[in-house]
Amino acid sequence: MKTKLFFASLLAITVQQTVLAQTDANGYTTANVTMGSGYANRVFFDLSANNSVSQVGDNWDIAFYRNNAMDKGVKINDAKNVTVYEASGVAADFDSVNPSQIGTWGTPLYNPDLTNRLQDGAFDAATKAPAGPLNYGWGTYNIGTHTVNGNVTFVLDYGNNNYIKFFITSFANGYTFKYAIWNGSAWNATQTRALPNGTDDAYFNYFSFTTGEKVLNMEPPKANWDLMFTRFYTDFVYPGGSMMYKMAGILQSPTVSVAKVQPETQETSTAVLPTTPFSNNIATIGYSWKPTSGAPHSNVVYYVKQGSEYYRMYFISNGGTGTGNMYFKYKNITSVLGVREVGKKASFGIYPNPTTSDKKVTVLYDVKEKANNKGNVEVYDLTGKRVHQSELTNQAGFYKQELNLSHLPAGNYIVKITFGGQTETKKLIVK
Question: Which end of the chain is more exposed for a tag (fewer CB within 10 A), N or C?
């Protein structure tokens, strides 16, 4: 294979750094994250630890989702200059596929960024396998063997007459696949590999065609990162059209949900959760905090929910391709929202407290485990009289519910929240 195909280094390089806390007058910590010149690295950031892990971005080619025994997910490395084509949906065509046929392969495939699933990849978007409910994109599920068997031959175009053909043979608690490298005039000998899911505490297993092996230590443990600063393709809209364009931005962990608010004043000591819904779309932050060039937008704020913790963040610096700097400020606002655990099944908070002049209070609740009965929220005055009652849904997930307490006179009240047989009370001041 021609040496110019090899964009990757042979070893994964990981740099872990606990960012020195720089706290401003409003209590916000400044996080200085850099992807390096040309966005050469990807960086994982942990909000609770104020910690980043930086790694070389282009030393792998394929990422196989390994967090679930039968949940698909095969991604191409967007940091590389590679185009994925779906050459054939007939397994027997693997041997006859040839780069001269590239004009017949149709539209290239990309990892989706408009998805709630980090694992969704370009290879899952293939369309030439037999259609139906058992279709995995690149292959078809066999009910009898509980295995997904491959149908689709892909060709990866690295440019300058450098190609790799790639076929996922099967998937069941891991992947088997084969590939061959184009030497300029013919395919080299076909290589076959097996990559079991394994016990790695990571979402993906990574494979390099450069080394022909699994690339180790490409992610921090799943619980140790919230935001990934990386390259990804998006359907970029411009006046008169759109195109698939490789961006540098932020993808979020599956454990994180984000609400984007624009416009909103960035520098403030107060914090109130927005009416904008929280989203699990992996690119909710994405590149939306920066214009095509120049400094970040000065009126965009993101609210990040990680477990029972809530953060408010906004970006302050964009270094572009020269440095890859993406500096932002963030603050844990959980205590401001008054979030408390109610047993093991849910966490709740009420805000604002004291109320504002309209006497409307928002109850936020994160249901981690469904209860047999719906929960409820009750408000009592100091004589013990119940003056308000509302029902809470018991569906799993994050919700907000507004209480209109305009009928209550100013004073001190007790809010009682019951869910899953557990009770929590909080003092509420109505102005």
Answer: C
332 shares its domain with 296:
yes
Nearest to 266 by CA among 306, 315, 318, 305: 315
Tens-place pLDDT, residues 10-46: 344 456 655 455 789 999 999 999 999 999 999 999 9
Q: What gap in Å lies between CA 296 and CA 287, rounded to an integer?
A: 10
87 and 13 in one domain? no
Q: What are the tokens at 97?
A: 């596929």
My answer on whether 71 and 27 are in the same domain is no
State the Cα–Cα distance between residues 40 and 424, nearest whole angstrom: 49
Q: Round to whole Å and give the CA distance between 22 and 7.
A: 37
* 140-158 pLDDT, tens digit each: 999 889 899 999 999 999 9
- Is residue 12 classed exposed, middle or buried when 0-12, 13-18 and 19+ CB atoms within 10 A define those classes? middle
**pLDDT(204) > 80:** yes
**Domain residue limits at 420:** 342-430
Mean per-residue pLDDT of the chain: 88
- The domain total for the chain is 3
pTM recorded for the entire structure: 0.78
Kindly state whether residues 276 and 361 are assigned to the same domain: no
CA distance 360 to 292: 40
Q: Does position 341 have pLDDT exceeding 60, yes or no?
A: no
CA separation for the pair 264, 268 (Å, rounded): 10
User: Does one domain contain both 139 and 210?
Assistant: yes
